[in-house]
Amino acid sequence: TGVFFALDEEIREEFQDKDNKSSVRNDFASAFEPFGDATFTFPALIGLYIYGKYGENEKAERTALLAAESFLVTGLFTTVLKTTIGRQRPFSGEGADIFEGPSTSKNSFPSGHTSSAFAIATVVANEYEEVPYIAPIAYSIATLTGISRIHEDKHWASDIVFGAALGYFTSK
Q1: Confidence grade of residue 76 (pLDDT, cut at 50, 70, 90)
Q2: Which residues of 52-114 form beta strands (DSSP E)?
Q3: What would the mean pLDDT of 3-24 be, rounded to a whole number?
Q4: Are the CB atoms for 52 and 58 separated by under 8 Å?
Q5: Residue 130, Cα to own-chain centre: how many angstroms?
Q6: Cys bridge to 155: 46, 59, 142, 149, which one at CB 3.0-4.6 A?
Q7: Which helix (H) or strand (E) holds 131?
Q8: Which residues of 110-129 are buried (b: 16+ CB within 10 A; e: fewer)?
Q9: pLDDT above 90 for 1
Q10: What is the rounded distance in angstroms from the CA atom of residue 157 to the CA atom of residue 159?
Q11: Residue 15 or residue 114, greater confidence
């Protein structure tokens, strides 16, 4: 996180450079952003749980419950950190080093979408560790969720890295 904190401004400039923007990149970012959002995640987890419960698939049921628990615990940690630290989002026009302390608006650090995506990816990867392609797919989706947040100018790169670690270690 510290290394990325030192590079936050440069990374943002690269992502926000008009020459680097394209409709393909915009569409790509839009496709992965929902994976860390509760309005997408909770219905998906409920669906997985129902599938597991009524399809008599204990692993799917357990995965849904563990993922929901990890999502909620990670969300709690993320919210406490965001409101305590009060780091401004990149689009606010303030620098990456602006931390205003306790605040309830425009809080950037850590990324909630990324921490949630990594929390769920970690549960899925652990529960389905015998399937060789599940972990790379789960962590790729989580990583692309984080990158989409940088692309949309909602987070600094260090917000993403810390959010990923928070989601991973909370689920572990």
Answers
A1: very high
A2: none
A3: 82
A4: yes
A5: 24
A6: 149
A7: none
A8: bbbbbbbbbbbbbbbbbbbe
A9: no
A10: 5
A11: 114
Closest to 148 (Cα-Cα) out of 21, 32, 2, 13 = 32
What's the chain's length in residues? 172
Yes or no: say if 164 and 146 are a contact pair by the CB < 8 Å rule: yes
pTM of the predicted protein model: 0.89
Cα 11 from Cα 151, distance rounded (Å): 10
Token reading at 113 = 């979408």
- Encoded tokens for 38: 């509760």
CB–CB of 161/129 below 8 Å? no
Residue type (1 letter), 110 = P
CA separation, residue 88 to residues 11, 82, 134, 140 (Å): 16, 10, 35, 27
Across residues 54-75, what is the average pLDDT?
Answer: 92
Question: pLDDT of 138-158, one tens digit each?
Answer: 999 999 999 988 988 889 999
What the block records as the tokens of 94 is 């303030």
Cβ neighbours of residue 64 under 8 Å, at least 6 residues apart?
45, 46, 48, 49, 52
